[in-house]
Structures are given as C-alpha cells and as structure tokens.
Write a structure and sequence with these properties.
Structural class of chain A: mainly beta
Number of strands of chain B: 11
Shape of chain A: globular
Strand content of chain B: over 45%
Largest interface: A-B, 22 and 30 residues
Distance between the termini of chain A: 38 Å
Oligomer: heterodimer
Helix content of chain B: under 10%
Number of helices of chain B: 0
Number of helices of chain A: 0
Order of helices and strands of chain B: EEEEEEEEEEE
Chain lengths: 112, 115
C-alpha cells in the first residue's frame, strides 16, 4: 500500500471549515483514499473514502486532485467535538482495506 | 447490532504471564484485524484474518498468536507478556460481500499494562 504524509497538527476556529491535507504521491491506480478519525482514546471511526471523484457524506467532503497524488478532507463547519486525530490511508479495496497502515495522522484542534 | 466488542477494557499483567484478549463482531464481516497503539503514535497491525480458519501476520506479530475458528470471534493471545507490550489494543472488522463495503469498524480497545 502507498504511504501517506500528513501535517502533525492543525488548528481551526469553531464554525469554520477545517481542511486537512494528505499527500499520497505513490498511490496506485486501484488504490482508494480512506479517512478515519480517533477522538481521545476511542477506537478510530470511519469518515469517508474515494477513488478519483470528489465525495461527500453527512460527515465530510473529500477532494482528490486530478493526478490523485494528494487529497483534502473538509469538515465544513467544525465543532469542538471534531477535535481528534485524523488518519489518511491509501489501500486497495476488499480484504486489503482491513490491513491498512495507519501513520501518526493529523491532530486537529478546534478552538472556540 | 453491538458492532465490535472487546474484553477486558483494562488489564494489568506481570512479566511472563499469558492472557487472551477477546474480540467479537456481529456484523457478519469476513475480515478482522488486531492493532496496537502506543502512546502518541498511530496504529500498527499485529495480525489479521480474511475469514474463518485463515490468519496472517501484520507489521508487529512477534509475541502474539491468533486463531479464527468462527466468523464472529478473533481472540489475540499474548504468550509471555513483556513490558514492551504495554499498549492499547484495538480490534477491527470489515468487508461484507453483501454490502460490497470495506470500511473498518473498530472496537473500544483494551488498555494493557505489563509490569
């Protein structure tokens, strides 16, 4: 699986959009981008995933560049409860998605 | 659905003791994994299973054994606990053919301290 690079930490004001970047320059054609987050010491929680088109769900939006070498997770209106560590993972589908490599992620702090 | 459950929530062991961390899921997922997370770090894959009777090693398998006799359960055994195994252990499941979805669902974790 391709490796990812994320900033160590970011701050965001409450109510503003949080834009979390991820670089995955060695991504393969059949690999998807997945985002998870981990609030405090809980188990990670799935947020969203995509292949090459932009995706949106009730939690977030995922923007993937045309060359697929980077992506951005967007939390449109960040709240204090969005303070968490966010992990960007690249993996192929199916059984490979269950043996992902989690890096150190980005610690997002939402401030009042 | 209870999702992914893990027991115990907390455990303290002495060096050399053995124990089994339990993990169960009720989502009929084929895929299950064990990760460990050391303080301030990301998750590292210990072992995984793509179905009953099939297991394989992840990044950090030494000192741990697994078996998968049923789809629902995936216990992790520490053979002879060492202080380096002090960590938080997360179990995850994913991949249901009927849903063609593969996002991972994680349990609440077991916090293990080895003295």
């Amino acid at each position: 699986d391709a490796k990812t690079t994320q900033p160590t930490s970011m701050d965001c004001a409450e109510g503003r959009a949080a834009n979390l970047p991820c670089n995955h320059s060695t991504i393969s054609g059949n690999e998807y981008v997945y985002w998870y987050r981990q609030i405090h010491s809980q188990g990670p929680q799935y947020i969203i995933h995509g292949l090459k088109n932009n995706e949106t769900n009730e939690m977030a939006s995922l923007i993937i560049t045309e060359d697929r070498k980077s992506s951005t997770l967007i939390l449109p209106h960040a709240t204090l409860r969005d303070t968490a560590v966010y992990y960007c993972i690249v993996s192929s589908r199916g059984t490979n998605a269950g043996k992902s490599t989690f890096g150190d992620g980005t610690t997002l702090t939402v401030k009042p | 659905n209870a999702g992914v459950t893990q027991t115990p929530k907390f455990q303290v062991l002495k060096t050399g003791q053995s124990m089994t961390l339990q993990c169960a899921q009720d989502m009929n997922h084929e895929y299950m994994s064990w990760y460990r997370q050391d303080p301030g770090m990301g998750l590292r894959l210990i072992h995984y299973s793509v179905g009953a009777g099939i297991t394989d090693q992840g990044e950090v398998p030494n000192g741990y054994n697994v078996s998968r006799s049923t789809t629902e359960d995936f216990p992790l055994r520490l053979l002879s606990a060492a202080p380096s195994q002090t960590s938080v252990y997360f179990c995850a499941s994913s991949y249901s053919k009927s849903r063609a979805a593969d996002e991972q669902f994680f349990g609440p974790g077991t916090r293990l301290t080895v003295l």
